[in-house]
Amino acid sequence: GQQVMQIPQYQHVQEGEDFTTYCNSSTTLSNIQWYKQRPGGHPVFLIQLVKSGEVKKQKRLTFQFGEAKKNSSLHITATQTTDVGTYFCAGPGDDKIIFGKGTRLHILP
Amino acid sequence: GAVVSQHPSWVICKSGTSVKIECRSLDFQATTMFWYRQFPKQSLMLMATSNEGSKATYEQGVEKDKFLINHASLTLSTLTVTSAHPEDSSFYICSASRTVSSYNSPLHFGNGTRLTVT
Question: Closest residue of B to A10, CA-based?
Answer without folding.
Answer: B41
